[in-house]
Amino acid sequence: MKKILMREYGSEDVLFEANENIPSITANQILIRMVAASINNIDTVIRKQGLPASVPTGLQPKFPHLLGQDFSGIVTQIGENVTEFQVGDHVIGITFTGTYSEYIAVDEASYVAKVPNDLDLIPLGGLGVVSSTAWRSVIGHGQVKPNQRVLIHGGAGGVGSMAIQLAKNAGAYVITTATESNKDFLKELGADEIIDYTTVNFEEVIHDIDLVIDTVGGITQDKSYRVMKSSGKMFSTAQVPDQKKAVEYGVEAQYISSDIRTETLHSIINLYTEKKLIVRVNKIYPFTLDGIKTSHKDFENGPNNGKRIISFNK
Length: 314
Prior knowledge:
It is a single chain. The chain is of the alpha/beta class. The chain has 2 domains: 159 residues, Quinone Oxidoreductase, Chain A, domain 1 (Alpha-Beta Complex); 126 residues, 3-Layer(aba) Sandwich (Rossmann fold), CATH 3.40.50. Helix content is 27%, strand content 29%. The chain has 9 helices and 16 strands. The strands form 3 sheets. Strands 3, 5, 6, 7, 8, 15 and 16 form a 7-stranded mixed β-sheet that branches. Helix 7 links the parallel strand 13 and strand 14. Helix 3 packs across helix 4. It is globular. Pfam families: ADH_N, ADH_zinc_N. Keywords: Oxidoreductase.
């Protein structure tokens, strides 16, 4: 089977193709033939420089390293102790052992779940990471309630677009920052108010925000403190918030990552099946070395409006 690995940190040119045997599975694992995966920010960050220095050395990538986290695919083999899956099941999930591979082996008890076989697995390859991160921000930690005011920065991106939909499903009034070109798409997702950050300073036109979801960081995050209610919450996927400013403004501010619980994934799948969540596909790339390299270049150059998907069948 084909794999795309990285040999060291650096540009997309550190990626290379290898051929290996299909993984053997243990009694508690399932073997999945990959259908789709997606490019996430963490993939390009790890490729360029690895995980932050605060992460223990033992958890840093070892070379050659297999990138990729979310996936969709079809179960082709099950271990003798597996009870939740059968050969032929369509599944999605997240793994931290890499997805740029034609086959992957994952534990039955890991972050993987069945989806109806009539769903298109291509967009589902980009559902796991962004939806789980948005879920944790909006539902898990954010605990959004009806009529609360939610501000989502970067609403047209992967996490932002999911956060808009989850917040609207919870009954919130949703404001998002984006460019004018994405206005129709964001309205379709349910955004109540769209602020074009290229022409308007959002901190001058909104106030009394209960929850901020920050996918941008930098000066955008700094300005967000000014529009929040006292005792409001801010969750950022872009950078660790300044705790001194959080105390100064009387708000909670945290860096956030994915909610890796199977029950969360089942809830997300239910919403997707009921058409209460959609995945916007920005572009589909073939599972080739050139395809992966191009997807990384495109992701870094942006804009990333929706998901960049790797198709193993293309």
